[in-house]
Amino acid sequence: MIQKAARDFAQNELKPGVIERDEHQKFPAEQVKKLGELGFLGMMVSEKYNGSGLDALSYVLVMEELSKIDASASVVVSVNNSLVCYGLESYGSEFQKEKYLKPLASGEKIGAFCLSEPEAGSDATSQQTTAEDKGDYYLLNGTKNWITNGGTASTYLVIAQTDRALKHRGINAFIVEKGMEGFTIGPKENKMGIRGSDTHSLMFNDVKVPKENRIGEDGFGFKFAMKTLEGGRIGIAAQALGIAAGAYELALEYSKQRKSFGKAISEHQAIAFKLADMATTIEAARLLVYKAAWLKDQGLPYTLAGSMAKLYASKVAMDVTVEAVQIHGGYGFVKEYHVERMMRDAKITQIYEGTTEIQKMVISREILK
Ligand code: CAA
Question: Which intervals hold domain Acyl-CoA dehydrogenase/oxidase N-terminal (predicted)?
Answer without folding.
Answer: 1-108
